[in-house]
Design brief:
Radius of gyration: 24 Å
Order of helices and strands: HHHEHHEEHHH
Largest sheet: 3 strands, antiparallel
Structural class: mainly alpha
CATH topology: Arc Repressor Mutant, subunit A
Strand order of the largest sheet: 1-3-2
Number of helices: 8
CATH class: Mainly Alpha
Number of domains: 1
Length: 200
């Protein structure tokens, strides 16, 4: 039914140009909020299957992140792992102790500096890291195939842009991503300097 009151009620004041322009940003804001929500749902499903596997071991997502980056960067220093994950030493120590105690990660002291600790996955750790990665590889591969030929480049550019600008050089170095957004060699070389925007 037509709202007569809405039809006949005079406006409180004539819309100013600035107010008319404000409607466009409002629409844009709604679109961006939808993107946020899509990101939530995508992340929920991206982590859902690995979470179920991790529960079998009594692990969580923090264990997954540590296992992943140690697997991808054999011999990584604890200091560099902290720089990647941006968590406290206490948080990492708790997760790392469990992974070491249960035989998923091995650690050794540095040859040049005995205060340093270097990490690598054991055969057991590599098996679990690969199992978790395969679940997420399949999901990403399926999504990229549906996105079309330009989907992978656009997705990579978007994800890089989501990272804080000051961290992007370090992430590009870690993942061997060139200026065009394409990955080069796989990760696996250690010894970067996070203070200079370089990670192992």
């Amino acid at each position: 039914m037509t709202d007569i009151n809405q039809q006949t009620r005079p406006p409180l004041h004539a819309p100013r140009p600035s107010e008319a322009a404000a409607s466009a940003p409002a629409d844009r804001r709604d679109a961006l909020i939808s993107c946020i929500e899509l990101f939530f749902f995508a992340y929920r499903d991206f982590t859902g299957e690995p979470d179920a596997v991790l529960e079998e071991y009594g692990f969580g997502r923090a264990h997954h992140r540590v296992l992943h980056f140690v697997h991808r960067n054999p011999g990584i220093r604890v200091a560099d792992l902290l720089a990647i994950l941006k968590i406290t030493k206490q948080s990492l120590a708790r997760v790392l102790k469990q992974l070491v105690d249960e035989g998923f990660i091995a650690q050794r002291t540095g040859a040049d500096d005995r205060r340093e600790r270097h990490l690598k996955v054991t055969a057991k750790g590599a098996k679990l890291a690969s199992r978790l990665a395969e679940l997420q590889i399949r999901r990403i591969e399926t999504a990229l195939a549906k996105a079309g030929p330009a989907g992978e480049g656009a997705a990579r550019d978007f994800l890089l842009a989501m990272i804080a600008a000051e961290d992007q050089p370090a992430v590009r170095s870690l993942l061997r991503i060139g200026a065009g957004g394409n990955p080069g060699a796989t990760a696996g070389t250690t010894g970067g300097d996070p203070a200079k925007g370089q990670l192992p």
